[in-house]
Amino acid sequence: MDTEKFCEGPCPIARALDRVGDAWSMMILRDAGYGSTRFDQFRTSLGIAPNILTRRLAALTADGLLEKRRYSERPPRDEYVLTAKGRDFLPILGAIGAWGARHHGEGGTTRAVDAATGAPVEAVVVDRATGRPLGTFPTRLVLPDQAPTG
Length: 150
What we know:
- By secondary structure, the protein is mainly alpha-helical.
- It has helices at residues 3-7, 12-20, 23-33, 39-46, 50-62, 84-104, and strands at residues 66-72, 77-82.
- The chain has a domain at 3-83: Arc Repressor Mutant, subunit A, CATH 1.10.10.
């Protein structure tokens, strides 16, 4: 499959997957969303090899999802914090998690809860204009130079 063709084309899904489509990147963003910021925290939580983690953190930083900040000069140590772009991805991870729990949750899965109340969080993706959940009504793709018609 010629992924470069799709990643440079008009499809926003292909463009997004080019940046965050591998499992390690999504798991790093998940952990960052739950408060991890330091290399060792990501490495311990994920069990990821240091060279892979270094590459993924560099790519997520280059793509503007994480910001690298120095927290110690001696020895030099950096932390990685979500940017606004990275925080915008957290609801997507919530939706993926909800789908995974619903369709692959045998044996039990972790779940998101409201940190203040402990109430379960159920991720749902809705159309902003109508409030209807996506997947409950037909949609179609419209190319950038086409006018949407009803």
